[in-house]
Amino acid sequence: MSEPPAPVVPEGRRGLVMASPRRPKPPTHLADLTLSERMAAVAELGEKPFRGRQLSVHYFERLADVDPASADALTDLPAGARQKLAAAMCPRLLTPVRELQADAGATVKTVWRLFDGALVESVLMRYPDRATVCISSQAGCGMNCPFCATGQAGLTRNLSAAEIVEQVVAAKRVQAAEEAAGRVTNVVFMGMGEALANYKAAITAIRRMVAPAPEGLGMSARGITMSTVGLVPAIGKLAAEGLPVTLALSLHAPDDELRDELVPINSRWTVGEALDAARAYFDTTGRRVSIEYALIRDVNDQAWRADLLGTELNRRGRGWVHVNPIPLNPTPGSRWTASDPQVERTFVERLRAHGVPTTVRDTRGREIDGACGQLAATV
Predict the structure, then answer these.
(1) Alpha-carbon dihedral sign for residues 269, 271, 277, 281
(2) Taxonomically, which superkingdom (predicted)?
(3) What is the mean pLDDT of each run of 10 residues along the chain (379 residues)?
(4) Residues annotated in the binding site, as ranges?
(5) Superfamily assignment of 95-377 in CATH?
(6) Domain boundaries in the chain?
(7) Residues flagged as binding site for [4Fe-4S] cluster
């Protein structure tokens, strides 16, 4: 498999965090490959091609922990080939390092160590009838947003498609093993990293999630949300993929002066350009766009900014967008903190007065280093 592409590092009026030095690429896993590619890879190992399909059934359909340590459980494979096939096709990608629970066990946050020692996080959020997993697409992040724990840590590297998929599979295994109520039906790319800066791997991972078993996990694309700080060309490219995923634009400010500070990529693609791209995404896909807006005390939570946001959204039409104000998860030692509850209510009321559907995001795991990147930084 070819090496994951280098992270997108756009030019702008101000410098962004540059891509990290080249690191060894992750080992190829069957989740990196199409079903036909898996069968060809197995044939190259001297085994019958249909063994690739058998491994795929174990991994994607049965959610089996298919790796060299568990190979003996693969009893439908020849005993003499189990270790070889597992080692070649299903190398260990993620190793749990630390796990914390909150919300009476409904929220489980896990730090994973990758093959090269890099750390990423995922969060399993359980609801009465379903479960959502928040996944990482990069180890660290190069977007340099000052209020974000991950952004301040900088970028280590892109994840491979299989490293992304494995976070979803791990969550599904937990639900299945615990016979928990509700399957994992929703995936949000809102963990560590800017997924559209790791475009090829992120799209490949989504295709594995939605492909019918045993090609993939057989999930609905409508249950997948792709979050971005506003890489405008990549938003257009995503719209053309034919994947009806939800786009979530992390806006955080309706004016360029403030967004230049909060989201440095804005120095390359402005608020207006990001919103135009989001509207075009809706026009192409028919999928309503989410606007993510972290409310930061005395920074971006003024009522006039709510009015400006409502005006900017309505200038691009009605019915295409939904706003999610998010109470900021503060990080230790940071000057950024959540808005006062009354200020938050006023902000929401002003948006709704403009006719903009608005729902405050349900925050999970505040007591377990809930902000992305916080927990990994403590390991």
Answers:
(1) positive
(2) Bacteria
(3) 42 41 86 98 97 97 90 92 95 96 92 97 92 97 91 92 98 87 90 97 98 98 98 98 98 98 97 98 98 97 98 98 93 86 98 98 64 51
(4) 141, 145, 148, 193-194, 227, 250-252, 329
(5) Aldolase class I (3.20.20.70)
(6) 30-89, 95-377
(7) 141, 145, 148
